[in-house]
What does this fold into?
Amino acid sequence: MATHQAKSIGKTDYAPPPVEGDFYRIAAVLNDSERALLKNVREFTEGVIAPVIEDYWSRDAFPFEIIPKMAEVGIGGVGYQGYGAAGGSWLLNGLVAMELARVDASVATFWGVHTGLSAGSIYLCGDEQQKQRWLPPMMRFDEIGSFGLTEPLVGSATSGGMMTTCRREGDSWILNGQKKWIGNSTFADINVIWAREEDSNQVKGFVVRKDNPGFSVEKIKTKMALRVVQNGLITLSDCRVPEADRLQNANSFKDTAKVLRMTRTGVAWFAVGCQMGAYEHALRYATERTQFGRPIGGFQLVQDLLVRMLGNVTSTQAMMLRLAQLQDEGVMRDEHASLAKAFCTVKCRETVGYARELLGGNGILLENHIGRFVADAEAIYSYEGTREMNTLIVGKSITGLSAFV
Ligand SMILES: Cc1cc2nc3c(=O)[nH]c(=O)nc-3n(C[C@H](O)[C@H](O)[C@H](O)COP(=O)(O)OP(=O)(O)OC[C@H]3O[C@@H](n4cnc5c(N)ncnc54)[C@H](O)[C@@H]3O)c2cc1C
It folds into this structure.
């Protein structure tokens, strides 16, 4: 929580109220032990991430030293049961995602790709033996995961158009193709790779180790968003994977979609967290920056920006709170997750834009944080299903008519 110096406005002492992005106190619905975990996440993000993140972001580098510290906080597999996972509810998972993104969306994305997309693929699509083998070291962050679905030529259309192939040869599978944008893949130990079987045309999932012959990764440089996340272009050239490393319960793209349904909610929570962080920085700035002899927060038009931001933060928090309840009840459907992902990321773009506006010229300086939020919001808006794709999923559900081409 920020502390403010009392300011003098004319003859009146001005002590700004505390800055609080959880206006409706949604974290209060957690139980005591869940709230304690969330407090640890806040201490981790404020104490470990915030002091270094601008430097890493500007250098397009990953702060490897945070991995053991993140492990200590105990946020591997929040929402999963067993296998050394943190457990807890999906609401807790969401609030952890929100807390991470409140300080930095890249660190949140690293966590989401590792424990969500990658470990989540094994959790949902692995057999018992595979889960026992891979999940405990991933939950401890001893082994880091990536998730390879998108390809250079096929992004939104992976469900029907995946070009990476697999074919069985004895006790092994041979994988060929490329995967683009794969977060963590420049250093991940465990790469979940999705490929279409040449014979059956069905999508299957594999765990490919980083030292597997035929597997290579090239770092994607020149990103203008989520610069701390290390995204790679993976090439699979006759990459041989044992049958034992094929996810035994991934039989078609429907199984891949189960993973995406689970993780899309996490991205929606990231969008909430980014808005919260941007709002809090903007509010603090509004009480500290003076123009015309008074804090700019005292101008009606600046308050309008702040209240619009807070409305976006609070409405998306409330939406996500209910969605997490549906998830915890086991009744959340694809279209529920898609609506949240699309809506919260649209609102996120709007909110971080207001925050940047409020900071004036200082809003584009990295050291004032907002510029990073503005850039990162662009990636969150597009990854794990663009707004258009998620709109088509919801549109099909509410009309009963598919507008997919
Ligand atoms: C920073 C970052 C991290 C990522 N991390 C990962 C990762 O770890 N693993 C992974 O597998 N992928 C990852 N991705 C890939 C991401 O999921 C894709 O970028 C996303 O799915 C969109 O695919 P595309 O970029 O190829 O866009 P395209 O599919 O080429 O779409 C381009 C535009 O066309 C629109 N469009 C496409 N089809 C239609 C249609 N039928 N109707 C209307 N509009 C349409 C899209 O909405 C979009 O606006 C990441 C991407 C980024 C930017």
